Amino acid sequence: MTDDAEVVWRPDPGRVAASRVAAFRSWLREHGLADTADYDELWRWSVERPAAFWGAVAGFFGVAFHDRPADTLPDAVMPGARWFPGGTLNYAEHALRPGEGRADDDVAVVFRREDGLRQELSYGELRRQVAAVRAGLASLGVGRGDRVVALVPNAPQTLVAFLAAASLGAVWSSCSPDFGVRAAVDRFAQVEPTVLVACDGYVYNGRTIDVRPNVAALREQLPTLRATVGIPFTGAGLPDAVGLDTLLAEHDGAPLAFEPVAFDHPLWVLYSSGTTGLPKGIVHGHGGIVLEHLKALALHFDAGPGDRLFWFTTTGWMMWNFLVGGLLTGSTVVLYDGSPAHPSLGSLWELAAQERLAVFGTSAPFVQACLKDGLELDPSSLGSLRVVGSTGAPLSVDGFRWLGRNLPPSVQVASFSGGTDLCTGFVGPAPDVPVWLGELSRPALGAAVAAYDESGAPVVDRVGELVLTRPMPSMPVAFWNDPDGSRLRAAYFEDFPGVWRHGDWITVTSRGSAVIHGRSDSTLNRGGVRMGTAEFYRVVEAHSAVVDSLVIDTSGGSSPGDGGELLCFVVLADGAALTDVEPELRAALRAELSPRHVPDRFVVVDDVPRTLTGKKCEVPVKKILAGVAPERAVSREALRNPAALDPFVALAAPSR
């Protein structure tokens, strides 16, 4: 980290002056709360005085409480912080209430499917459909606290069903329809659902996939179900299900109402990856998500009325929940269902041009795939874009450069890092802060981010554990089926009492920016030189012949000769040979990382095992290679490509 790091984007003063974060700072001054000269002063105030900051977020955005809270944050402790005690509100009310950008004829939702299907819903029509489905769910016995689970595509019908459930005070939980039956049961059975919302199939990569057999099997294993609501996404329909269209028709004209619930009343249940056991059900509350998503989308991505907001996601990833939060800001939410690479990697960029997106969100692996494919965009077709967001993995330097070459110079590259745990990012962009090559610009407002060394001391310009030293409203209300909170405390608070340990390696630079290095439970520690796996992948996957890779350190980490190996597994492009590629990779790793981080062996595999949300399975593979029985190391049902484990199991066989 040096002070002369390359700046790849600078804020435009005119745009900053018109931004919502500038309006927020003015509002704070007018109300005598804080007079801050720049983003850094605002951030410091936000983390030093969390009650004042989050109370100001509620006031600035006009959060509608039915019962006024007695306080904002009586005690800023972790775990156990109580936000806005006594206050009642409803997420769906904030997503659907009339206001700027949300007039009846304003566009609320644009839907695009990979086969060319396109639909629009106005805010008026969205409100009408939510009211009807709300009445329909109530007629099926759904009420406050009941669980509505959904095996559904990223489509308007899904959004309608979610908002209808939320309006009743019911608890939502969704999986993408490409989840297998076992993976869906592992998640949904925990919450004992009242109603299942399910599609008949989905479209992906030029094919229509029938999921009716999966839905039938899922229903058999959810004994608490009272009803199934079917979405005829491919036209086939679901047998023995109440059609969503039927609910819309039978209850058309029903009044739109919202059940006031406590600030921490469960809104939805998200899930951990479940690779090493039953997925943990992560519960978020109505109020925390309203405040966090208003803050993140409006103040950090500057999304608001008249803007079109898109993020490529499925309903099984937290970014779907983040994306639909665009409605809170009065934006138009653009939903896409299908493959991001069908018929080509240029398809989503064409969507960005056609739909005049202001914010285009994707993943770092997608950007890397565009780079590897040699894709070239026409910047002149993307004149509406202000921000391109990237999450899911650290965005490489080469990824930054590819975006810089292919986007208009005015577009901010917004690398964004956080997690399912808080359903947001806590390091990322700000409209009034530059972007440095390979870095995330700043900690988010209200996110007291620090890097800790092993003793729990904060460090700068050194790799450390990513921690949060102050509570945030969107931290989990609870884990499902964790009545005494012991599992939640074990997950985040065992290492540094009173401090949230997130599980990532981070460097906080002396400029205030940050670099994420990958998961701290899969560190490469060779001869005392500690490095995150993201740094390794950046070098290896920059090679044109490497499609994907996985690095595993089987040693104890103290020295290269402690009985283990550093292994690099690579997926090679068609026609590439390891004999040609390996010398170049060894030279690059030696030069760009260190001689200690040159693998002992390179091994070619057909695929890298990934979770259902696309994360590389570093820790489970490391356990398998260390001799742990595969069935104890990983749940295959939690993997997108379970057969990819087989070569690793075979490699470990002699040790078992």
Your description of this structure?
The protein is an alpha/beta fold and 656 residues long. The chain folds into two domains: 88-515, Rossmann fold (3-Layer(aba) Sandwich), CATH 3.40.50; 541-652, ANL, C-terminal domain (GMP Synthetase, Chain A, domain 3), CATH 3.30.300. It contains 21 helices and 33 strands. The strands form ten sheets. It has a seven-stranded mixed sheet with strand order 4-3-16-15-17-18-19, sandwiched between helices. α15 links the parallel β18 and β19 (412-415). α14 packs across α15. The longest helix is centred in the first third of the chain and has 17 residues, at 123-139. This is Acetoacetate--CoA ligase.
Strand composition percent: 15-25%
Report the CATH C-level class of the largest domain. Answer: Alpha Beta
CATH architectural group of the largest domain: 3-Layer(aba) Sandwich
CATH topology of the largest domain: Rossmann fold
- The CA-CA distance between the termini, in Å, is 43 Å
For the largest sheet, list the strands in their spatial order.
4-3-16-15-17-18-19
Q: What percent of residues adopt helix (DSSP H or I)?
A: 25-40%
Please tell me what the overall shape is: globular
Rounded to an integer in angstroms, the radius of gyration calculated over CA atoms is: 24 Å
**Major beta sheet summary:** 7 strands, mixed
How many distinct folded domains?
2
**Tally of alpha and pi helices:** 21
Beta strands, count: 33
Class computed from helices, strands and strand pairing: alpha/beta
What's the name of the CATH homologous superfamily of the largest domain? ANL, N-terminal domain
> What would the average pLDDT be, to the nearest integer?
93
Low-confidence stretches: 557-562
